[in-house]
Structures are given as structure tokens and as C-alpha cells.
Amino acid sequence: MHSFGYRLNGLLTFSLTILAIMCAITSLSDNLNTPSPSAEIQIMNINWFQKQPQGNDEVSLTMNISADLQSLFTWNTKQLFIFVAAEYETPKNSLNQVSLWDAIIPAKEHAKFWIHTSNKYRFVDQGNNLRGKEFNLTLHWHVMPKTGKMFADKIVLTGYSFPEEYR
Amino acid sequence: MGLIGDTVDSIKSIQTRQLLSQAVSLGMIVTSALIIWKALMCVTGSESPVVVVLSGSMEPGFKRGDILFLHMSNAPIRAGEIVVFNVDGREIPIVHRVIKVHERQDTGEVDVLTKGDNNNGDDRLLYAQGQQWLHRHHIMGRAVGFLPYVGWVTIIMTEKPIIKYILIGALGLLVITSKD
């Protein structure tokens, strides 16, 4: 009853249980944080806007993205994954979301930033519906913790639109 | 010589009833683990509620050896979610992020494109021949939480099966030779 094996077993079980409880409490502490992020995206230029040979519209644009996401970081945050997506509706599709750019913010100091970039991923429609269309740009973030539950949310910025003609 | 004699004696001295009751308790432990696993499958709505991260394609967020908790609901699939999917014909599920979503007006069906955070290109190379998009039936769950390092136990047991046999053999020996 008190042999080495039993003591080792009891010790291991106890320490694993305590570790699991600590991870759960750490994750719960993330709920205490009330974030107040802000972001702004400006489209500086539509570089080109063409219809591909297969019939799908494609556009390349350059954006200015500035954001302050420092309030999203807690002691349990490993990194913040952010991306900018364009959202729009077409006759065939009720929702289209196309990710244009993403980044990983590893620490709170880097969470307040400004970047001038063209779209990292190709912005291709399913079809040729983009001329003159209005779209939203959303900045999404995904809080990836050191342990526990992940949170995701977004800011929606409206009022952007494509040019009427290809160029 | 004395040690071998002692071990043989202890194996000979096991009564049938004691052996049976130990077998029953072992069976109870295995069955309750199975019950917990199946209950988790029901609660999370996913076929495998916990997966181990096997590759480095989502670093630095998820490293090899982390485990992910999955949950599948009927909520529509949206960009930014980390999903676990099976490509037709491949056994091993892949955990990547959704970067493009096209949802049909009429049927509500959805075309999804995924990409690993640490990969340069999207996952079209990983999909089946000629497949451009994933659909809802490919997706097994969304990642909602994670625990670091715990998955290494599974990785070691899968990649070096000899350790699995050693562990089970040692456990079996312990059960047989224990005195209560």
C-alpha cells in the first residue's frame, strides 16, 4: 500500500490533476479581459482590375491598414493572428469572404501598427460580378492563448466599392 | 536464481478469484474511458473531439505535439476559423485556417479554401486531384481550445510502436504481480 510504485502513481495522478485545473483557471481568467480594439483601413489604389481567361474577376489593390489591438493581449496570450477580408454579396453567392492579408502579432508592443501593403492573397471572384460592387473590409483577429480557449472577433468597415470598369 | 524463484512463486500463488476480480476492474477502467470518449463525441458534435497537431504548418500558434479541442455546430463556416478536415482518400486530418468562403444563395452550400498559417501557399495542393474547394462534409470540426505538449504521448506511441508494447507489457505485469 505504501510501496514506491503506489506513491509514484499517486504523485503523478495528483500533479496531472492540479496541472489540468491550473490550465482551466488560466483559460477562464481570459474572460476577465474587456478589449477595446480599433482599426482603420484605407484603399490607396486599385492596381488593376481584370477578367481572367476562365471568366473570374480579379483585382489587385494596395491598402493602408492601421490598428490598435493592444487591449486584446492578456498574460495568457501567445499570439494574435489577424487578417483582413473583403466581404461582399453576388447574385449567385449570399456571402463571399476573401482573405487579402494576414499577420501574426507575437507581443503586445507590436499590436499597435500601421502598414502599407498590397493584397497578399489573390482576390478572385467566382464569376464576374465585381464591377461597381460595394464591399466591406473586415479586420478579424484570433487570440491564440498559451493554454485553453481561443477567442475570435472582428471589426467591420463599410463603404468600399470596386470601379465601374475594368482597368 | 532466488529472484526468478520468487517471481515464479508469486505467479503460481495467484488465486483464480483474485485474478478474475482484477480482470473485471481493468475492464471497468477501459470501459469508462470509452464512455467518456463517446460522451465527448456527443457533446462536441464531432467525430474526433480531440486531435493531436502533427505538423508545423500552423506554427507558431500550434506546434507539433499540441492537442486541439474541436467542436462542430451547424453554424456556417466563416473565414478565420481553424478547421479540421479530411481530404478524400487521406486518413490523416489536417488542421488549417479558412481563408476564403463562397456561400451559395440558394442552397446554403459553401466553398471553402484553407491555408496553414506557416505555409506560403494555400491548400489546393493538398486537396484531391482536380478539387479546388472544400465543402462542409469534409470538415470535422472547428478548433476551439488547445493544450500545449500533451499530444507528444500519442505521437511517440504512434511513431515508435515498440514503446506502446513495452508500456502495455509493463502494466500487465504490474497488474498480475500486485498483491491486492
UniProtKB/TrEMBL annotation, chain A:
It comes from the Eukaryota. Pfam families: SPC22. It is found in: Endoplasmic reticulum membrane. The keyword Endoplasmic reticulum applies. It is a single-pass type II membrane protein. InterPro entries: SPC3. Residues 1-24 form the signal peptide. Keywords: Endoplasmic reticulum, Membrane, Signal, Signal-anchor, Transmembrane, Transmembrane helix. The keyword Transport does not apply. Essential component of the signal peptidase complex (SPC) which catalyzes the cleavage of N-terminal signal sequences from nascent proteins as they are translocated into the lumen of the endoplasmic reticulum. Essential for the SPC catalytic activity, possibly by stabilizing and positioning the active center of the complex close to the lumenal surface. Belongs to the SPCS3 family. This is Signal peptidase complex subunit 3. It comes from Hibiscus sabdariffa.
From TrEMBL, chain B:
Its EC number is 3.4.21.89. It is an enzyme of class 3 (hydrolase). Transmembrane segments: none annotated. Residues 35-142 form the Peptidase S24/S26A/S26B/S26C domain. It catalyses: Cleavage of hydrophobic, N-terminal signal or leader sequences from secreted and periplasmic proteins. Coiled coil: none annotated. CDD domains: S26_SPase_I. Keywords: Hydrolase, Membrane, Protease, Transmembrane, Transmembrane helix. It is found in: Endoplasmic reticulum membrane. InterPro entries: LexA/Signal_pep-like_sf, Peptidase_S24_S26A/B/C, Peptidase_S26, Peptidase_S26B. SUPFAM superfamilies: LexA/Signal peptidase. It is a single-pass type II membrane protein. Gene3D superfamilies: Umud Fragment, subunit A. Catalytic component of the signal peptidase complex (SPC) which catalyzes the cleavage of N-terminal signal sequences from nascent proteins as they are translocated into the lumen of the endoplasmic reticulum. Specifically cleaves N-terminal signal peptides that contain a hydrophobic alpha-helix (h-region) shorter than 18-20 amino acids. Belongs to the peptidase S26B family. This is Signal peptidase complex catalytic subunit SEC11. The lineage of its organism: Eukaryota, Viridiplantae, Streptophyta, Embryophyta, Tracheophyta.
